[in-house]
Amino acid sequence: MRNEKKKTKKKKRWLTVLLIIVGVFVLGGGAYAYSVWHSFNSAVKTIHTPVERKQPVKRHEEVTVKNGDPFSVLLLGVDERKNDKGRSDTMIVMTVNPHTKSIKMLSIPRDTRTELVGHGTVDKINHAYAYGDVEMSMDTVEQFLNIPIDYYVKVNMEGFEDVVDAVGGVKVHNDLAFSAGGVDFPVGDLTLNGSKALKFSRMRHDDPEGDFGRQKRQREIIEAILDEGASISSLWNYDNIFDALAKNVKTNFTFDEMLGIQSKYKDIRNNIEEYKIKGENEWIPNAAGDNIYYYAVTNEERQKISDQLRKHLELGQETVSAGQ
Q: Which residues lie on this side of the membrane: Cytoplasmic (predicted)?
């Protein structure tokens, strides 16, 4: 029964907010529907932030969502706080194929050791954001997996609180009993407000799965936000929802591309496969002689993942670069 609940949640996660807009036009109509549509359009214009890639993008032909091409997205969960740019504590790569009607999702641990493209160093992969923002993150992940990264979606994890409260709280299923920030999270179904959801999504040190466990909870919060956002009751609070999204989400998807995804790719929500990249814990001394923890991934594992994702993107097989 628990697995069935999780499968149901997974089916609802891809651009559900667009379905809200469609539903408003069908059910509401008239001036109210126009008001919601106008607010959504304004929010998308606010979150739309193009990137200029200095490094070569691994694409021979431009991806066109309008034509229903397979594409990839880098999801960045960034812990931005006051006077701190932060690092991308969550990095998830999604490849989307409308021809097979499927999504493949790969979580990359934040401590993964690799070359930071454009910085000339080998370091933890989440440092790419601190050194070079979204552009360096996209370039670094692109080289690490040897696949093109076409789009990005950046979510300010600190803004989870605002978004969760805007949709009236979220419901999640917790598999691990733990305490964080003075709040107890027992095993079972939980209803969380914004403050509790933020604490729930941040814990990793007491999780046997470490970073993988935290990423799992963060994905569950995002899915729960989409579930609540898709409910009819949320339509009457659309101003707060769109305002919270506009403040905490950035992407290079355009408004027209989002509409194209809703038109050409909507059936893919029913088939999502998650991957976990295998690696080993490694301690390497730095220049000061201090041992630094890394997650070490072999070239063989990178090649295996690359082959799977490239096939899903309908690209030919290529050999990953050595020396990560």
A: 1-13
